[in-house]
Amino acid sequence: MTTVPASDRPAFALRDINLASAGLGAAALSATDDFFAPVARMLDDSEAVFYPDRYDDHGKWMDGWESRRRRGPGHDSAVVRLAARGRITGFDVDTSHFTGNYPPACRIEACVSQGDPDGSSDWVELVPMSPLGASAHHFFACAAGTAFTHVRLHIHPDGGVARFRVYGRPALDPKAAGGGELDLASALNGARIVAFSDAHYGAYHRLLAPGRGLNMGDGWETRRRREPGNDWIIVELGARGRIARAALDTAFYKGNFPESFSIQAADLGDLAGDLERAVVTSSMFWPELIARTPLTADAIHDIPAAQVQDIGPLTHVRLNIFPDGGVSRLRLFGTLD
Length: 337
Fold this sequence. Notes:
Elements: H1 11-15, E1 17-18, E2 27-31, E3 55-56, E4 59-60, E5 65-66, E6 76-94, E7 105-111, E8 124-131, E9 137-141, E10 147-156, E11 160-161, E12 163-170, H2 174-177, E13 182-183, E14 192-196, E15 201-202, E16 220-221, E17 231-249, E18 260-266, H3 276-283, E19 288-294, E20 300-303, E21 314-322, E22 326-327, E23 329-336
């Protein structure tokens, strides 16, 4: 199964963050059964793959979660702790490569829990019993106003799910920040990619992920530019705030790091998501937050407050790289406004 084209993906799967991303810190806490394939594999960030001749001690190796065939009543389920407490906008239950062993139906619940859910947890149904098909992405929209911490995927009665995506926006708690500094460009704080000039290599969404890159594919990398100009990527911050300092990491980019970078920024207020083309156009004229600064290979580049212009509260930034190349992580530290 290949990646679903952007034109075939619902708005929530294009705009919002996968709160069930293992790369962001989500974890599978339990499953009623994962005999054929471990439930943790269902949260991998990469697209599911299929190896026709690969087998293990339990049978055919499958890239996802797969339970054994039930021979009695009941059904299987799995509990996932989200990477961050967030408002869920939709799901993708992906059965890629499960052709004769996919579940015929699924149901999805969510709860709010300070620790791991237990018998007293109050689960809320977000997706009622819904049909699933063979080797396909199944998108389900969700309009829940509550910010949840855990989800529970029910499959009826058994079978395999290649990937389980939970799209939404992390609920940034201003009280938790305590008035101090936080990374406004962190996906875990609600930041997201709005647009980019090119993202031929790597995984551009990982630019906003925690930690350092794991390899050269764990970040934003453009193709080699063969014409004038430079590449860029636009980020909507997790919350409106004032940026005090920054950091760019070119981890693993050794022969393909940008020569330099700059950052422009603006306060766009509550600009609606359907005006993203207007955001891209206006970004060319945003004021400069950080002037053009040289970069080096495979290194963290800390940008102190002295190099950051005070242009007031901000909601969006445009990272320019000259002329092209790869950046593993972007950090923009500041305070909520």
